[in-house]
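User: Hey, my collaborator sent me this sequence without any context and asked if I could get a structure. I don't really work with proteins. Can you help?
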Amino acid sequence: MEYVSTRGGAGAVDFEGALFSGYAPDGGLFMPQRIPSLDTDTLRRWSCLSYRELVKELCSLFITAELVPRSMLNDLIDRAFSRFRHKDVVHLSRLKDGLNVLELWHGVTYAFKDLALSCTGQFLQYFLEKKKKHVTILVGTSGDTGSSAIESVRGQKNMDIFVLLPKGFCTQIQELQMTTVIEDNVHVFAAHGNSDEIDEPIKELFADVDFARKYNLMSLNSVNWSRIMVQIAHHFYAYFQCAPSLDTTPLPVVEIVVPTGGGGNITAGCIAQKMGLPIRLVAVVNSNDIIHRTVQHGDFSLSESVKATLASAMDIQEPYNMERILWLLSGSDSHLMKTLMERFSVSKSLKLPEDLHRKLSETLHSCSASDEDIVRAMQRCWEENRYLLCPHSAVAAHYHYSQPDGTPRCCLASASAAKFQDALLRAGLVPQLPPEITALTAMETRSTPLERGQDWARALREQIEAVAQQREAQGVRSVPLGQWGVTGQGATQT
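Assistant: No problem. I've predicted the 3D structure and written it out in structure-token form, which is a compact way to encode the shape of the chain:
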């Protein structure tokens, strides 16, 4: 199994090479050269597996046993899920009116990103320990990615993580989940700007190829293939839980409704579909609706600005994983992707070719929800089920409530409602806070402020250099990422 860039200008790499990269050197994203195809017998056999076992089976298709022996792969995944609060790792709640909610948020930070990032952290540590190497992880976050990334690598001597959060644009709980982690290898910056603005200094550092190579910069945003790979399991598990029967031929179709921001989870769904899983995918977005406009009209263009919504983690203008989806649907046409993405990078506006738009609209359905729609879905779910939805999960529930009954459907729930007290209060609901979250307000915090007018890239650069000097004094030395066959990292996004 090798991985190639969506833009065709970089050499193929193995899983290890894809893992230790963000963007490919040509600015594209890594994708498997070949998508495995599963037959009906395999799907029926897998239908009895737990979520944990499904992750193991799927990862073994994308990570060769020569790189990670199967027994070790199983151990790494078991370790990744050892801190999850639910015995099944994820849980399906079957509610009234056919509303099936797959709770993907039983990890340490109460967000779905814990699932993929906990595994990715284990994969990273496996290779780093084996080769005695050190990396510098650089992450921009709109809320949940930062804390999940921190928890996946906290305390690890082979990794330093630098996280930029947009001060005032995360919830208090999301911010505290980052700033209360007092570990030597965790460095949090609170920037006075939005998620697009914090992306700029990160892009600048990744674009400095010499700096990126010297300090082994890498990303844990969903540009990283490892996260997409693990998320494929969400769709298989959702399908097996919600399919009425697997005894029929052909197998029944289940609709999977995916709250969508950067597009990682919906990309994983498209790959699952390509592998032979009979699912109908629905990308649901908030008022930042570029994916909805792309699916409906082929209009992949930015709005004037990011709109602040109740579903804040989805307040994203540039869903970079759309490039992966379009590459998949174009028949791996890297020349077309390079042309389209370079055009978009200049004009921030793109009209999809007619044939590509047709394939996209056949593969994905879409829906957008306003804050009012989100509030109504949260209220209805509580009134009918005494069940609290987070505002992101409520975007999926809004779609469900707008559809006629009868279709087997599963809504992916991306975070616990406990993280979004303001949204709950706006809906007239009472937050239910677990003790781990309540305890955050009394804990020591640590972060470095980045003020408007300050050179954020320079501040970040200086801090990375200072930490590297400390590590060298401790006998920890960075070996260039080129040893993995990966050179430049390009940019990263939330």
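In plain terms: Confidence is low (pLDDT under 50) at residues 483-494. You can pass these tokens on to your collaborator as they are.
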